[in-house]
Amino acid sequence: MVSNAVSLKSRAGLRRGLLALSAAALLAGAASAPAVAAVSVPTVAVGSAARGAGFETDATLQALQQSTVGAQIAGNVLQLAVKAGDRVRAGQVLVRIDERDAQAGLARAEAGLAQADAEQRNAQTHVQRTRDLRAQGFVSQAALDVAETQLKAADAGVQQARAARAQAALARGFAAVTAPFDAVVLATHVEAGDLAAPGRPLVTLYAPGRVRAVVNLAASRSAAARAATTTEVQLPDGRWVVPVARTELPGTDAVSQTVEWRLDLAPADGAALLPGQSVRVRFAGGTAAAAAAPAGRLVVPAGAVLRRGELTAVYAAQDGRFVLKAVRLGAAVGDGIEVLAGLKAGERVALDAVRAGLAGAVPAAQ
After folding, report:
1. CB 42, CB 322: distance < 8 Å
2. How many CB atoms are located within 10 Å of the residue 73 CB?
3. What is the per-residue pLDDT across 32-52, written as a single tens digit (0 to 9) for each?
4. In what order do the strands lie in the sheet with 93-97?
5. pLDDT tens for each residue of 135-190
6. Three-class SS of residue 286?
7. Which CATH number belongs to the domain containing residue 288 in this structure?
């Protein structure tokens, strides 16, 4: 019994010793593990910049000459001779439509013309015979008048039949749909076997190298754009070019309350551009625009903006840490970017958005 009690005490002591050693090892490991160092990131207060007389906005490129070729007769599409991206010459066949119905109509018109010719010859003979009989006193003047009236009706019938034949021949020509000018095929709207009907779109074409930037401005901004002394378009390669002409359409869209502006680009500037591309447009200068603009605008340094796909945000200093805030940006202002929404004047943001996103980043002491 005494030996068993001693054994139990020995085991308990051993267990306490192991626990103590484990605790000591954990404390030693914690002491040796490197602590996360705080990253101090400088901040800057969001300030106001004097608002100039200009502004930037998005625009879309549009072909100066674009046409959607439609069918003018009914029939099945026998052949689609082009595809999107093809270059075509003026007069080149784009689509062939079944012309059997048009051919039958032409045959009917030719038969009608032959019948009208025969009736005209018969009326001429009858008038000549009636005139001879009238000269001999065998028929009355009334009979001659009737014969001459019938001849006039026959002449009119011939003219009508000729017009019908010309119309039928024209309709037959519509079976081969051709390009109206040298162009690039933008889109095709039918396939072989589809049923074409008068007015149905077949192919959309545009003349390459001649484009314009189309801007839909809010009606409230039209006065500023109208007063701008300089208008520039930023191409996809980053170059700013001056349009050769600018046009403000004389009307406001009733739904969106926008006014459409068209800025025609020089052929040399638009040679490599495609319809549908997005560009930037800048309206600058103009005292009227400056007078109508607000006193200032919020601006942050370009490095303070974090871009992730469609997200634009900044790291704002709040209670000794950084908080990510989504913002809506405007035009570039010198080395900064205008903030349209998401921040207030006086808020402090990280100068380096990348460093502010690191673990342990804190605002630098001011």
Report:
1. no
2. 20
3. 445 556 778 888 888 765 545
4. 176-178, 93-97, 75-80, 195-196
5. 998 889 999 999 999 999 999 999 999 999 998 888 888 999 999 999 999 999 99
6. coil
7. 2.40.30.170
